[in-house]
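Long-time lurker. I teach an intro course on protein structure, and each term I like to show students one example going from raw sequence to a predicted 3D structure in token notation. This year I'd like something fresh instead of my usual example. Would anyone be willing to generate the tokens for the chain below so I can use it in lecture? Attribution to the forum is fine with me.
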Amino acid sequence: MATEPFLRLAVRLTPSGGRDAVEGFETDAAGERWLKARVRAAPEDGKANKALVELLAKTLKLPKSSISFQSGETSRKKILRIEADSEDVLNKLGKD
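-- Reply from a regular --
Happy to contribute to a lecture. Here you go:
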């Protein structure tokens, strides 16, 4: 069975987090799974969003152009669309 050519990824971003890191997945009180990420950049003028895209592109070894925002550009919880094999992306992120 073929996997999807893209992935809808829920991310909880911590801006001004002291370092750039992907910290794995967590489940919130509502039962939704989020990828936790933190970036050094401040949440102003889209700097934290740009840093998130750069971090994920580097982690996933994908071009930055393959990652786009579906929602949440001005909130900590974001929905991203990643143009890549969904199974491959989840394996690289260590999803269990």
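Some talking points for your students: The mean pLDDT is 92. The two ends are 19 Å apart (CA to CA).
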